[in-house]
Amino acid sequence: MSLDFFDTTPFASNPLKTKSDLHAFCTALLDPLAAHTSPGGARIRIGYTGTHFDEAAAQLEGFSRPIWGLAALLAGGGAYAGTERWVRGFGAGTDPAGPEFWGHMRDKDQRMVECSAIGYAIAVAREQLWDPLSAEAKAHFEAWLGGMNDKEMPNTNWLWFRVFANLGLSKVGSSHFSAARMKADMDHLDTFYIGQGWSRDGPEGVVQLDYYSSSFAIQYSQLIYSKLAQDTDPERCEEYRNRARTFAQDFVHYWDEEGRGVPFGRSLTYRFAMSSFWGALAFADVDLPAPLTWGVVKGLQLRNIRWWAKQPGAYAPDGTFTIGFVYPNLNMTENYNSPGSPYWAFLSFISLALPETHPFWAAAEAPYPTAALPSPRALYQPLHIATHLGGHTYILSSGQQCSYPVKQSAAKYGKFAYSSAFGYSVPAGSLTLEEHAADSALALSADGGETWKVRRATRAARFEGARDGGAQWLRAEWHPWPDVTVETWLVPPTPATPLWHVRVHRIRTARALQSAEGAWAVYGQRADGRALEPAGGDGDEAAGTHEAVGIARAVSRAGVSGIAALALAVGSGGGGARAGRALRTDANTNLMVPRAVLPTLLGEHDAAEEDLWLATAVFGLPSQGAAEGARPGWQAEWVKRPAVPQEILALIGA
């Protein structure tokens, strides 16, 4: 019996090519929320999981985040029959004497986050969302929204949420609008700017440049502001458009031909919010830098939304979002992810606010501009190297870390590489290697394999090599224990070996260690759904695993992942060759697939006064489009081995 009917969504038949298609997708996601909406309309409760903030704020989150799409739809001339639910909700949620009151804001309150969508909504769709309210409801509404102006906020992208609250209040002529508060917030937010289009998410000192620096918050907010505040703050608005032009030339490297963005950092349950920057460029009427055109930008956003519309695990049977990435997965989320959190994805409906005549909609969709993009490409501010060589889009990463406690932060910021196709994995526990799922990482144990540590915080992260068009790589230091120092070099692929990248580690250790170095985690099942077996065994001959001294590999419908030790003079602490193992990771550790296998090299290393050097080559070739499995010719690329740069070999003395 075919089970293909499980691998579809209610939205998969929508071609998502035109504005009307996107309108239909937006309304199809809004409709299921009616069954989860409170009688007064002010709260939406989709599920029963908890967050670090209170339940009223979580239900406000469910109410507010879909407004990003609803308001854009209305601002662009569209209509939605369920709009009245939100109009009623504005009245009920801000009435302090009512049963659905959202609660007064306090310092650093989650309610502040939700004010961003609310302020934006009344700024762009005043006639539909503000004007229908009674005088009493308007008074309650503006008093509640303006209540954040005298409250303390985190020194992060949150300040943008108060800017948008004030922007909305200014557009409806409210006396609760504070021009001084908005200017002070804007001036402080501008201190986050670090150059080349990038802004950090908070105070100086920690590099954390994930999607919050682009589509989730900062770049997106700057672009919306540059359109809505053009008449009152023209110089700042032009500066934001200039930043976006520069930033776009880096950000384009995080996408692939199929529309997938590279999963990196936190809050990935926001899903296609990842691509909202591209729609915001259009909303702000930014003059595009080459090689971007409106056809390219349109393709970048719509391909991403199309890809997400076809991911069955992203949606519950009733059409609401699940919590997770490609499938329901609380393991990879943060403690601020409520059932309503994923509706931040509605940021990407911003292009619905544009008329059909806008170049974004009028242009013919263009493919991803692979040939026009240099690859590999050094991205200096985020300390990434992006590559599209060999049909695999991924980044090498060193130097980022979260400035405050975030669940699974070592996995979200500390891995060596992040792939648009293979994603990354998060630990399911703290003991076995299967629980750790240490893909794109070097895991070390000092207690005989009882516990393991991976890279989280780095020091002295930097680029090395030639900036004048020559080869470059990343170098960083990390300290799993006070008496253990690891330096890691990450070298991108070359045209000669496009499917391989290189890692070199120098370990200085006063204790004996075990090591486990992982390649890409890959879908770990055969064609019949059973677990992958050794290649050549019973089952599908085109798929399977391979283990040998210094080598591990897995081939499945998702493509090929492999790892190989490179021969070096390893010093007195070597402890012998590393063993290859195709490790079956715990279920629900990988973002892209719930059942994965991880090619891994296992080593044992003595304490030593001399440096221990490990050199590793990592192979990755994802399947392409609808064609599942390893692409033809991968074996010829597998037998090649990449070279370690001469500058690194000189340090080793090899």
Describe this structure in a few short sentences.
The chain has 654 residues and is α+β, with helices and mostly antiparallel strands. It has helices at 19-30, 55-64, 67-75, 83-93, 110-124, 126-129, 135-146, 159-171, 179-189, 218-228, 234-251, 276-283, 294-309, 359-362, 409-413, 433-436, 634-638, 646-652; strands at residues 193-195, 198-199, 377-379, 384-387, 394-397, 417-419, 442-445, 459-465, 472-481, 484-491, 500-509, 513-518, 522-523, 544-548, 551-556, 559-565, 579-584, 596-605, 612-622.
Sheet with the most strands, sense and barrel status? 8 strands, antiparallel
Instruction: Determine the CATH topology of the largest domain.
Output: Glycosyltransferase
Strand fraction: 15-25%
The DSSP helix count reads 18
CATH class placement of the largest domain:
Mainly Alpha
Q: Any idea how many domains?
A: 2
Cα(first) to Cα(last) distance is: 58 Å
What share of the residues lie within helices?
25-40%
Shape: globular
- Summed over residues and divided by their number, the pLDDT gives a mean of 94
Count of β-strands: 19
Q: Uncertain runs with pLDDT below 50, 5 residues or more? A: 570-575
Tell me the structural class: alpha+beta
Q: Radius of gyration, rounded?
A: 25 Å
Please tag this protein with its features.
654 residues; Glycosyltransferase; 8-stranded antiparallel β-sheet; Beta-galactosidase, Chain A, domain 5; alpha+beta
